[in-house]
Design brief:
The complex is a heterodimer. Chain A is α/β, with parallel strands linked by helices. Chain A is built from five helices and seven strands, in the order βββαβαβαβαβα. Chain A is about 35% helix and about 25% strand. The chains are: A alpha/beta, B alpha+beta. Chains A and B meet through α1 of A and α5 and α6 of B.
């Protein structure tokens, strides 16, 4: 059973991990959100990296699931921006494009990993569960 | 003392003698005249004979030098006597013998066409005979065989030798071993094909990847929705769960198809078929749609309705269209004020179709105009410089032209023509 901590403005489930999804394809974001909700995650979606940066600060906990190919700031650039700002946020890249060595590149950049769309829910949950 | 009579007789004797002497003198003169004139004639004759001899000697020298020259020539030369109905060779030079590998003895008196009869292409032999029997010259390239069975490409020319009345008396043939040139041509063609393949595969990979991208997105959401619903129905509705499992399985099958499509880009043989160029343009634009949207550009089309079909290779023509469209997009890259690309088709008379691709970029600098269609000329940092030269070769093989001009209102116009009812040549 989840434990409620009541304090300040925030009402949070202690055992719920927070996942931020950034994908310019709205339907993809919504679908993954619904899926992750069934795994008891708290999920927030954004359709651009900029809108994510605008509403989530580095201090907010949670794992970032981000699409690579997006107009404006793409996944790689967003990750770099996070790292440059000193964030330790765990990042998982997703993409519908075929990226040679994307998994290697993601790991080298310090991310949790890379998932080729469409991916199986178990693969995604396995990656997320690496985060303590 | 002399008597009168003896004196008279003496005088008459003397007179007779004198007369005789004079007659003899006359005969003698005549004789010497004849001898003289005969001697003169003889002299003339002698000069003539000497001239004839000189002439003959010169002619012989000429024949000698010509024979030597024929033998020194690097082309094979032979002469066929028309009188013999079986095309027997009456002369062949050294190069001919070397080329075919037979000795002069093997060749002289033999039918030219039977020299390589057992292995040569007899259809060509028939064609040559037919041409010659019409008293016309023959010229052509064919595969022949040396005595030892080695193949060689023979560029053969046979022409007619005529007498003063214009009647054909002999055929003179010249043949050149063009095997090396052929091989070179073949190598160049092969390299081009390879490059073409590389470019085509590159382009195709681009489209497959953008197509794969577009399809993968909905597949991702369908899979996630179905898996979410499946989990939500856990222990509640196994029938619905079964249905959802089918959706999940089919989604994953579709994803597998895309994976295979991405890795499966094979070389295809050219296929000539009737093509509706307008339809091909529309299909090509569809393929480019993502690219165009991502680059924030628009394509406007003005297609002449009811154009006649053309004969061509779809893939190749599509490659040209793709190349022109993608060049136009590149020309407007990073410039938001240049957005519009237009494609127009029209009929020029009843013979050819014109396809125009017009961008609204900066146009082509004058100094680049000439180099534009040459190999490896590119103004793009990551360009191969093959696109336009390949495109031009393709259009020319289809019997058309690919040209460029700058639009006075700005931008460049690339246009090509394709003849109505034309075919496709092999191009190299």
């Amino acid at each position: 059973m989840p434990i409620f901590i009541i304090g300040g403005k925030n009402l949070m489930f202690l055992d719920k991990k927070i996942i931020y999804i950034v994908d310019d394809n709205e339907s993809v974001g919504r679908a993954i959100k619904i899926l992750l909700t069934t795994f008891n995650f708290e999920v927030r979606t954004f359709t651009s990296a900029q809108s994510f940066f605008d509403s989530v600060s580095n201090n907010d906990p949670g794992c970032l699931l981000i699409d690579i190919h997006m107009p404006g700031i793409d996944g790689w650039a967003a990750h770099k921006r996070l790292l440059d700002s000193g964030s330790k946020r765990p990042v998982i890249f997703i993409s519908a494009d075929k990226h040679e060595n994307a998994a290697d590149r993601a790991l080298k950049a310090g991310a949790l990993g890379f998932l080729q769309k469409p991916f199986n829910c178990q693969a995604l949950v396995d990656l997320i569960s690496i985060v303590p | 003392m002399l008597d009168k009579g003896s004196i008279i007789s003496n005088i008459s004797d003397q007179l007779r003698i004198k007369r005789q002497e004079s007659a003899r003198g006359k005969t003698h003169n005549e004789l010497s005249n004849t001898v003289n004139s005969q001697a003169d004639a003889l002299k003339v004759k002698n000069v003539q004979i000497k001239q004839w001899a000189d002439k003959e000697q010169r002619a012989e020298a000429q024949i000698h030098i010509r024979t030597k020259a024929m033998d020194a020539a690097t082309d094979g030369i032979f002469i066929i006597d028309v009188k013999n109905k079986d095309f027997s060779v009456i002369y062949s030079n050294q190069a001919f013998q070397t080329m075919v590998g037979y000795s002069r003895k093997d060749i002289i008196g033999k039918n030219y066409f039977l020299l390589y009869a057992d292995i040569a292409d007899l259809r060509i032999a028939e064609e040559i005979k037919n041409t010659l029997q019409k008293d016309e010259s023959f010229q052509g390239e064919m595969l022949n065989f040396r005595k030892n069975g080695d193949k060689f490409w023979n560029y053969l020319r046979i022409s007619c030798v005529r007498d003063v009345n214009g009647v054909v008396t002999h055929y003179v043939g010249i043949q050149t071993d063009v095997t090396l040139m052929r091989r070179k041509d073949f190598e160049i063609k092969e390299q081009r094909e390879e490059l073409l393949h590389v470019t085509r595969v590159g382009k195709l990979a681009e489209f497959v990847s953008s197509l794969a991208h577009e399809i993968s997105q909905p597949l991702t959401s369908i899979l996630s929705y179905a898996q979410a619903a499946y989990r939500m129905l856990e222990g509640k509705d196994s029938q619905l769960q079964e249905i959802l499992q089918y959706i999940i399985n089919d989604d994953q099958r579709a994803a597998e198809v895309i994976r295979r499509l991405r890795s499966l880009l094979k070389k295809s043989d050219p296929e000539v078929k009737p093509i509706d160029i307008n339809k091909l343009i529309n299909e090509t634009i569809e393929l480019m749609a993502t690219d165009v949207t991502v680059r924030n550009k628009v394509i406007k089309i003005a297609l002449e309705p009811k154009l006649p079909n053309i004969n061509g290779d779809r893939i190749q023509l599509q490659q040209v269209l793709l190349n022109l469209i993608s060049n136009s997009l590149d020309a407007m890259e990073g410039r938001d004020e240049f957005r519009e690309l237009s494609i127009r088709t029209s009929l020029n008379g009843s013979e050819e179709i014109i396809v125009e691709v017009k961008d609204s970029g900066c146009g082509i600098p004058k100094e680049n105009m000439k180099k534009l269609f040459s190999h490896f000329f590119t103004s793009k940092p990551d360009g191969l410089g093959m696109g336009l030269s390949i495109s031009r070769s393709i259009i020319e093989a289809h019997g058309g032209r690919l040209e460029v001009k700058n639009n006075p209102e700005g931008g460049a116009i690339f246009y090509f023509t394709i003849p109505v009812g034309g075919g496709v040549k092999e191009w190299s």
